[in-house]
Amino acid sequence: MAICLTAICPAQTKPDPDKGNEVFDEQCAQCHTASGDERKAGPSLQFLFAKPKLESNGKPVNDANVREKIDTGGKGMPAFKDTLAADDKTNLIAYLKTL
After folding, report:
1. Which of 39, 52, 96, 97 has the least C-beta neighbours within 10 A?
2. Can you give the pLDDT at residue 1?
3. Which residues make Cβ contacts (< 8 Å) with residue 70, sequence separation at least 6?
4. How far is the CA of 73 from the CAs of 20, 57, 65, 67, 90, in angstroms?
5. Separation of alpha carbons 17 and 73, rounded Å
6. CA–CA separation, 15 and 78 (whole Å)
7. CATH number of the domain at 17-96, out of 3.40.50.620, 3.40.50.261, 1.20.81.30, 1.10.760.10?
8. What is the mean pLDDT of residues 57-63?
9. Spatial distance between the Cα atoms of 77 and 45, rounded to a whole number of angstroms
10. What is the phi-psi region of residue 54: left when phi exceeds 0, alpha when psi lies from -120 to 50, beta otherwise?
11. How many CB atoms lie within 10 A of CB 60?
């Protein structure tokens, strides 16, 4: 039986869409909308996870490809690999799934 102490093992946290909304407001809302069809510098992210492919690169919309897009950016989008913590990205993806 494994015992995990907080100093040794990081806590596994459930993705939090509310925290992801905060990340969106702080980092994404300047270029993306969360509702409607309005296009800013980037596309609206409403219904992102209902779409078959990412607009920017044609890859299927799934957690891994959305995280890759967040990490690497491209086509005018900055890379957030080194500026957003892993938990922030996980929470942001959880939020995007609610749109």
Report:
1. 52
2. 46
3. 80, 81, 84, 89, 92, 93
4. 18, 10, 11, 10, 16
5. 21
6. 23
7. 1.10.760.10
8. 97
9. 13
10. beta
11. 11
